[in-house]
Write a structure and sequence with these properties.
- Four copies of one chain form a homotetramer.
- The first copy, chain A, is mainly alpha-helical.
- Helices cover 64% and strands 0% of the residues of chain A.
- The N terminus of chain A is likely disordered.
- Chains in contact: A-B, A-C, A-D, B-C, B-D, C-D.
- At the A-B interface, helix 1, helix 2, helix 3, helix 4 and helix 5 of A face helix 1, helix 2, helix 3, helix 4 and helix 5 of B.
């Protein structure tokens, strides 16, 4: 895949969205990428990430990146989650970075410092 | 929350991670943010995004941003998914942008142009 | 809702499926209950069950039924998961009890006694 | 696996729970089957069921049992969802059939006949 970023540099969100769009267009996958399907795919990939951890103790979970095969699997699922999140956002014209910045502002007000644990936050 | 970005500009991933880290530290929530808990929370938030769409027809789903209350809910859940993804990545020192760039490279090889539909891709 | 079971007795799976079917029919909800929508709803409800546990330590999780409000929430989400599983199975004419019996037989062969932990079983 | 049900008959929920318990005990898997882990596993399996449908049109989804390989996969994931639901219920001493019967009673009151669509019901 050719883009115009420097070799060895990590692209930013906008560049990744561009590459995802080109990838899907070249394979005529746009027809599958409806908002509803992408939301389903995002949740499926997030569960695949969770699957890696489901039987691990907290100690095993914290050490997961020390084993190369598992570390690769974690990075692979992180990539899938981010890919579907970015494609979902493109489908509905949502800016994920602006959405998160706004949410952090709201949470500053909702959860004052020194307040409750996150048990019932959502 | 005070950071040093220009007013009105959207922060990048690194700035958002910094703000998420400060937010959790100020509330002593770091103890909850183990990799396993964050993977669970990420999958829960992705399902909350899917919940918005679960009973909608494709047409209703495509129009979801035209209704302000639903649009806000979509942006809110996108923010939560991204927040937990970034916090998970901080906990395990994974670079989500590099992981996605590498995955796109691999998928270029796995799914040649003109090949199969994504039905069994994962 | 009137059925013909004895008061105070717990209905079996077939009776519950009958009641779910009547409930949906009376509200004209059958149009929403496609296999794909029901699979999405099932996964959303399973995540709502997980949400109760996401920040809990193993000790807190084991004690969850001792607190009435949380115990009620657990039972409520268990009911939702079972409801959508049974409705999904009705939509596709799958017998969930027969499917599980067959799966246990297969797993007896796949995972011999004294073998591996379930880390990679799925 | 030997139990005392008649050959060819489908066991009921109690018999399946008994078999699941014996299966886990023989493999010393009880240590993994904490309520939190089982809730995570249940949500992971529900997502694997959803994965089968994520790119399908409603028509393809409705025809999924006509293709033997996909039909088998559906039954396999239904079995996994039910298995983890039953094991979760055993771990916390919840009766899933009673929970669903009680929930249907509550929903009769919450959603009167002739009322709203299920869009915001949960």
């Amino acid at each position: 895949m050719s883009d115009h970023s420097e070799p060895g540099t990590v692209p930013d969100i906008a560049a990744l969205q561009q590459r995802l769009r080109a990838f899907a267009a070249a394979r005529d996958w746009g027809q599958y990428h409806t908002p509803k399907n992408l939301a389903a795919a995002l949740s499926v990939e997030a569960s695949e990430l969770l699957e890696i951890f489901q039987w691990l103790t907290p100690e095993q979970a914290a050490a997961v990146m020390r084993e190369p095969a598992r570390a690769h699997r974690v990075e692979d699922e992180v990539a899938d989650v981010l890919a579907y999140l970015l494609q979902f956002c493109m489908a509905l014209d949502v800016d994920p970075l602006a959405a998160l910045a706004a949410k952090i502002e709201r949470n500053e007000l909702r959860f004052p410092v020194g307040g409750t644990p996150p048990l019932d936050a959502s």
